Amino acid sequence: MSLNKDVLFLIFKELNKKSLYLCLFVNRIWCNTAVPILWRKPNPFNKSIDVLFNILLLSLSEESRNTLKNHGINLINETYKRPLFNYINFWKCLDLSFIDRMIFQIEKSKRSIVRNEILKLFINDNTNFIGLSISQNLDYQLHHISGFECCFSKLQSFYCSSSIDQNILEKLAKTCKSIKKLKYDIYGPIEYYGIIKLIEVQNNLNDIRLSCSDLSYFEFLGKSLYFMNLLKLEIRFNEDRSNRMKFKYLGNLSLSFPNLKILKVRNVPLRIMKNVIEGTKGQLSEITLDSCNEEYIRIIYQNCPYLKYLKLPYLPFYIRTPITEFENLLINCQYLNGLVISGVDNHDKLFEIITRSSPITLFKFDFFSFRKINLKNIKLFFDNLKDRKPILLKINNANYLENTEEKQQFENLAQEYKAKGIIKKYFIGLDVNSKDFEWFN
Fold this sequence. Notes:
By secondary structure, this protein is α/β, with parallel strands linked by helices. Among the domains are: 1-38; 317-441. Helices cover 39% and strands 16% of the residues. It has helices at 5-12, 17-23, 28-38, 48-59, 62-70, 87-90, 97-102, 108-122, 148-151, 166-175, 193-201, 248-251, 270-278, 294-303, 320-332, 347-357, 375-383, 399-402, 404-419; strands at 93-95, 131-133, 157-161, 181-186, 207-212, 232-237, 262-266, 286-289, 309-315, 338-344, 364-369, 391-397, 423-429. It has a 13-stranded parallel β-sheet. Strand 7 (262-266), helix 13 and strand 8 form a beta-alpha-beta unit. Helix 2 runs antiparallel to helix 3.
């Protein structure tokens, strides 16, 4: 029995790339179904970028090939033969930085010519992208290319920096109102009429990440930071946090995010974070902080009754006030499912507080520390969790990279409690690539 191609497509969409590659060699139908999925979002890095460049050159129109030849650019050495597939039409998420990486080896005076012809492959009336990324210092005049409006009219995700020509953003605002996810990096003195216009016209913007080296540049966003649909907000400030005067522009902002669920902040002062959290009307379910004291913790448990996931930085468990407020947070946030603490100096005290005061819903833990963990105390911690849902536990500790005997003792203990049904899954070691609130695949 052969599967309908539409059914195959739905199945293939759920496969990882390794499995999809194998599908290419089964038969023609499987190959024709897998290729569009593989080319939806290529990752042109390392060796593959040369192969990709060759495919793009073979895909150029006769007019573009002649243009290159007329400028003395001969990049296609083999006998010309168009690819079996129109790969460009399958491409849905476009990162323009890869073009500059591909043409870097070409003579500098001829790079812009090659770049323009390749851009014509992507930007025309026959292509349509849902994702676009324009990195810093890419001086592309995209808005002057024929087909720009059609090509990017249905964008769902968009990344750029303040170095972009604001005219591009202004023109994009006229044709695209479907962006859901926006990432905007701010560098130095900027113009911002284009990005404000782009933000204001979006109908379903629900995920924003703003990153800058000077928060005074957020002043221009003050009146725009009201989004009924916003679900995720990330604010990153990359300058020395000791320069507090530049936060005055945000300190008095009246912010309202009535549906915000996810908040990530980095180097953002207390009063700004307080404004943001209070503007969420108690709906936050996930918070990630890079700095913390008793006031931060107090703001969270006073305003976030439905919090499910929390990531905190280093907590000084040898100081009484933060300990008390952390315990108050566990008592007040009765829906908490997952806790990540990226710096623990006293595991014994941490385990004691969690055992005594955390809600029964809390069963996911991720602790990072350079201090050794006392097996006797972790055993007691496991025993006290016997009435909860089997836990997911990650212990990120660099000590276990060298002390393999101690790591083995810990793993033996974890395996014992896994057999008892107290632990569902565990990791002991150092996972520097782990993402927030992703315990296991």
